[in-house]
Structures are given as C-alpha cells and as structure tokens.
Amino acid sequence: MAELSPQQTACLAALAAHFSPATCLAGEDVPIRNEADTSFLPRTRPIALVRPDTPQGVADAVRICAAHGVAIVPQGGLTGLAGGAHPVPGAVAISVERLSGIEEIDAAAATMTVRAGTPLEVIQQSALDAGFFVPLDLGARGSCLIGGNLATNAGGNRVIRYGMTRDMVLGLEYVLADGTLVTGLNKMIKNNAGYDLKQLFIGSEGTLGIITRVVLRLQPRPGCTLAALCGVGSYDDVVSLLGAARRGLGPLLSAFEVMWPDYWKEATETVTGVRKPIEGQHAFYVLIEAQGLSEDIDGPRFMGWLENQFEAGLIEDAAIAQSMADVAMFWRTRDAAGEFQTILGPHVAFDIGLPVSRMDAFARTCRQRLADAIPDILSVYYGHIGDGNIHIVALQRGASPQPAAQISRVVYETVREFDGTISAEHGIGTVKKPYLGYTRSPEEMALMARIKAALDPKGILNPGKVFDLPSAP
Length: 473
Ligand SMILES: Cc1cc2nc3c(=O)[nH]c(=O)nc-3n(C[C@H](O)[C@H](O)[C@H](O)COP(=O)(O)OP(=O)(O)OC[C@H]3O[C@@H](n4cnc5c(N)ncnc54)[C@H](O)[C@@H]3O)c2cc1C
Hints:
The protein is of the alpha+beta class. It contains 14 helices and 18 strands. The protein folds into four domains: 6-95, Uridine Diphospho-n-acetylenolpyruvylglucosamine Reductase, domain 2; 102-220, 2-Layer Sandwich (Uridine Diphospho-n-acetylenolpyruvylglucosamine Reductase, domain 3); 224-337, Alpha-Beta Plaits (2-Layer Sandwich); 345-427, 2-Layer Sandwich (Alpha-Beta Plaits). The longest helix is centred in the middle third of the chain and has 17 residues, at 295-311. The two termini are 32 Å apart. Bound molecules: flavin-adenine dinucleotide. Flavin-adenine dinucleotide binds at residues 37-38, 73-81, 84-85, 96, 116, 138-140, 144-145, 147-149, 151-152, 154-156, 205-206, 210-211, 338, 425-426, 429, 462, 465.
C-alpha cells in the first residue's frame, strides 16, 4: 500500500478515536473481501473500513472523512458488476453491512422500514411472513443489501409487472457528502410536496450520498405462481407473444424472459442442475410467469390463454409448471447465467437495453461483428425482453486475459447504432464509464456533473465512478 498522506493519517486517527476497533478497521485489518466487488477489477485495499451500525454512525464517518478531504467508497453486499463499490486508491470504505434489520412493518400503510444493510433475501422472507410481498428479486438475493439495490436501482426478474427498485421506494434516509443526515421516511404513496429528492439518490451508485434507511412499498402476497416454458419459432412470434401476454394476462404477467439458442445450449448442456423443460430445437425459448391471487380462478385463465397462443401458432411447444418445484426448475434455465463464471471462465458480461422490436436484429448484428473482429469468440444472448433489457456474455475461447476492451467497443458501438442504452440495470461504475456518452447526450452529462458538484463540491463520494468530473478551467 502506498504511503499515507498527512490528511489520510489524520483522518485515520480521527476515525479510530471516534469508533470502536470493531467498527473501524485499518491497514492489514481490513478484510480481503472489502478489496473488490464482483466486477473482477484488480483488488485495491481501502486505507480503512468503517462499518457503523447506526445512521448517525454513517454520518459521523462521512463528516470525519470530509473534514480531512479523504475519498469515500460506499459498500453494500459487493455483488455489483460494474465496479461501483470497488475501492479507489487512498479511499476509506464505508460499509452498511452492520446497519442491518427491519425496523417496522406497517400493515395499514403496506410499508416496511428497513436499514440499508439488510440482505434482500431477509426482506423478501420477512414480507412473506407478514402476508406481503417484496417483488424485487435477483440472482444475488442472498448477498446483496437493500442499500446497494437502491444505489444501483436494481432491476431483476419482475420489472415487467412491478417496475425497477425506484418504483418500490416511498421514503429514504441518506447521508450527504458533508455528513448531514437527511431523514425522509415518507410512507405515503402520494406526496407532491416539493422535489422528490429520494429519486436523485436512487441509482446514483453512491456518488451523491450514502443510503441508511428506506421505506419500501409492500405488495399483496401472490396466491399462486403460474409458469410455462415455451419454444417459439421466430422473433416476430416472440414479439407477438409478448403483446398477447400483456393483453391476455394483464396485471398477472410477472415475467417474460427470452433465451436465444446459443444461450439455451450453454445453460442446459453445461450448467450442473439445469434440466431442459422442453426438448427439440426452437428459434427462441420463452419463460412466461404469471402471479395470481387464486389458483382456482387464475390457473384456468392462464391455461386458456396458453391454448389460444398454441392455436394462433405463436407457441411451437411448451412445458407448463405443475408445482412450485417446476416453476423453480424453469427459472434455473434463466438463472444458469450466474454459473457462467465457473463454467465458461473469465468473460465480459453486458446488461444493455434496446427497443424490443430491434433486439434480434441487434443480436444477429452484434454476434457477426464480434465474430469478424475476434477469432474464436463465443457470445450468448438472453434477457428480460419484456423490460427492453438483454444480457450478453462474450469471451474469446482460451484467451487470458480476455480482450475485454475490444469486445466492449464492438458491443457498445452496436448498441449506440441501435439507439439502446449501455446499462439497463447494473449501472455504470467504472467498467462502463468510457461509454456513458454513447447513451447520454453532452447536455445530460453536463447536468449530471452540475448535480454532483452541488451535492459533493469536494468530490469525495465515490470519486471516478459513473463519470469523471470536468477539470477546473
Ligand atoms: C449472480 C448475480 C445476479 C445479479 N442479477 C442482477 C439482476 O438481475 N438485476 C440487477 O439489477 N443487478 C443484478 N446483479 C448486480 C448486483 O447484485 C446489484 O447491482 C445489486 O443491487 C448490488 O447490491 P450490493 O449490496 O451488492 O451493492 P454493492 O456491490 O456493494 O454496491 C453497488 C453500488 O452501490 C453503492 N452502494 C452500496 N451501498 C450503498 C449505500 N448504502 N448507499 C449508497 N451507495 C451504496 C456502491 O458504492 C456501488 O456503487 C447481479 C449480481 C450477481 C452477482
């Protein structure tokens, strides 16, 4: 580790004087885990790790760092894929992992007030136990923390019905870059009193403030989950099926996931524990899920809708879930992507967004351009099509290191050409920073810089993430 500056040394002394040794760890005592997130950037040890267990503790830690001009990296569950929680050299990591627990479930308001360090899975289970439902769900549910979910405005599996994380938040508490604790734990759905400040902090990847508590909006607990895994003959039929699902299943439709054959082959033939719910070759594989209130009423409605799609020729073959075990088995084909790191080795992963109608044209163009540019390239395509979000996993077989910059350039230039977004759900962090201008206009980027400068004039909160501040004239 590089030698500490006088400011950093003074900052560590002030932190050590304020916090107990269990809360503030420095130097060799910082756990290896806090040196990286899941973006596979080279490890960097923060000069200290502060893990407060109260919102005021987070505010104190930020105030001390700000007073010494020392950079801060907010950390949650470290499952982020864009490098947002990755420590920058010379920074103090402030983790919310010990700021954990559910403070209140308000059944009348249908809200849950939680601390930022609570794992998503704990929140989901607590809601179910109380007869409610938290629709946010993603593969990292056991490790990611709700503060990190908010900071990345996570997407996940049920956006088509319930929206992104920001749609589930009613109130927020956060610490500003000078250490001010702002508490706005609103529980009302309607509240138009001035600016909706919380939206600035949701999705800002820890660059504007550190989230300490949140009020989540709860949904009724679904009475039944219905699912079918369908083989479909063309992309036009996939788009028609999506339209038919929106019209015919209405608010029951909770997921519409599409897998291209290259993805299907890797997922079902190489990942342990994944079975093919349907046999035969199809141009596309579509997982359709509907959540209803009653199996007796919604089960026949779902079956009737599926039969209509067979008769219309939109579905070639389908497996229909007979139990929750079947539903889980269908989802394993889609969640298999989480195992690709182990199965395929180092690769480059993308979470791009595109107009739904252009996704297959994009996939065909991108696959061809990657093949033209890089020998022995494998690229597979799958995603939350109903949300306009497609994932790509790409790698050059046998290459170490992977030609990540070359792969990214081909993918993002094609995204720009197809009027897409370089990030539909994982955020920009550092990994996608060079490409932000492919998706945001110069005016939008200048406005982001003005907001950052207004809220964090010293530039100490997660510096170098999302975009670089323009240098002073
Ligand atoms: C297997 C797997 C599946 C995934 N699936 C999805 C998916 O379907 N959809 C999706 O959107 N993402 C997905 N992700 C990405 C990741 O899980 C999410 O981005 C998640 O929301 C990050 O939460 P975290 O607690 O791990 O945050 P971290 O990785 O610790 O941090 C993420 C960012 O948020 C900031 N941050 C963390 N906590 C706070 C806080 N309290 N206040 C302010 N800033 C903070 C960090 O500085 C960083 O910029 C997946 C990841 C994995 C490993």
